[in-house]
Automatic annotation (TrEMBL):
Domain IclR-ED per the UniProt entry, residue ranges: 73-251
InterPro entries named among the record's database cross-references: GAF-like_dom_sf, HTH_MetabolicPath_Reg, Tscrpt_reg_IclR_C, Tscrpt_reg_IclR_N, WH-like_DNA-bd_sf, WH_DNA-bd_sf
Entry-linked PROSITE patterns: HTH_ICLR (PS51077), ICLR_ED (PS51078)
PANTHER family: HELIX-TURN-HELIX TRANSCRIPTIONAL REGULATOR, ICLR FAMILY, TRANSCRIPTIONAL REGULATORY PROTEIN
Keywords: DNA-binding, Transcription, Transcription regulation
GO molecular function, one term: DNA binding
Limits of the HTH iclR-type domain: 10-72
Domain of life: Bacteria
Cross-referenced Gene3D superfamilies: 3.30.450.40, Winged helix-like DNA-binding domain superfamily/Winged helix DNA-binding domain
Name this protein carries in UniProt: IclR family transcriptional regulator
GO BP annotations, alphabetical order: negative regulation of DNA-templated transcription
SUPFAM superfamilies: GAF domain-like, Winged helix' DNA-binding domain
Amino acid sequence: METNKPLPVIGSLQTGIHIIETLIEQGQPLKFTEIQELTGITKSNLYKYLNTLTMLGLLYRDKKQGSFFLGSKLIEYGNAAIGSEDVISRVTPYLKDISRHTKLTVLLSVWTHDGPVIANIWSASYGLNIGAQIGAKLPLLSSSGKLIAAFQHSSDVFEWKTNELQKLTDDEKEQFEQELEIIRRTYFSYAVEPLVDHVSSFSVPILNYKKELVGAVTIVGFTQLIPETLDTTISQFVLKSTFELSESFGWH
């Protein structure tokens, strides 16, 4: 019987990255003694690691204060990663797989400066009028809109949400805010027939390493086919798929 053997790794590389991650976690420059205390690395070895990381541009040492900062090389690496981060092309294979598995239409929606829009659609094999197309804006009370209101915290989202809420009664606003709290806990948003009669949807988030919303994966279909809760095979499959997708954007 085969056993899962641990993959061979380079321990010194792990240690070097751990030093960088320590500075990231602390969110401020650190002195040698602070890094040594936080990492537990011996002084003689820590000198070597810090000298190497500084020489490579991964760290920068302020000679006056003696503190270590994250280096400019990390910014270069980060920009390169962001530049290759084509959200639509990365997400599309997942949309295709989810649609094939669920036999339902799947959307990718993303936030723009004045509201969420549909960025891509992978349709099921049968014809279905979902009431929208690529580039169409989605309302606050759609499952995508609720998800964005729950997870996106920028000023333009707040302004959009405030304007949309003016259309609701006080009781509806209170109910909506309570629903957002549930969405944040469950990573699941449901909306019954927000655009077209007899067509409902549920959405789950794609998150990045900052736990910020990259986009929403939305499942659309006839109301009787769309689950209202997480306690279904379809919901669990979609959530598992988007968690995997979020991990590719650095989410844990």
